[in-house]
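haha ok so turns out i had the wrong file open the whole time. this is the CORRECT one, sorry everyone. sequence first:
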Amino acid sequence: MKAIGTTLHAAILAAAFIAGAPAMASHGDHNDHGQQAASAMADTADGEIKKVDKPSGKLTIKHGELKNLGMGAMTMVFRVKDAAMLDKVKAGDKVRFTVENANGAMTVTAIEVAK
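then structure:
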C-alpha cells in the first residue's frame, strides 16, 4: 500500500512538472521579444525630412547610416509602407525611422518625429 502511495505521489509531481513546461517555454519567448526589440532599435536611423511627395507616396530623407542595409549616410528617396506616414512629417522635421528593402524598393516601415 505504501508503494502505491509513493508511485501516485511521483506521478502527480511528474504531471505538475510537465504541465509547467509550456509556461517555462513561453517565458523563454519573452527573452526573444527583448532581442527583437533590440534588433528593431538597431535598425532605426536618424534623419531629416527634405521633401514629402504625397502624390507618389515618397519621402526624401537625409539620413545617417542604415546598418541593417549596409548603407552609409546620404540623402535618398524612400517609398512609405503606409501613406498615412506622409501626414506625420514635413520638410525640416528631424525623424527616427526604420527602412527595409521590400521587393527591391527601399521602404520606410516606421517613422516618428524626434523630440
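The domain at 45-113 is CATH 2.40.50.320 (OB fold (Dihydrolipoamide Acetyltransferase, E2P)).
again sry for the mixup
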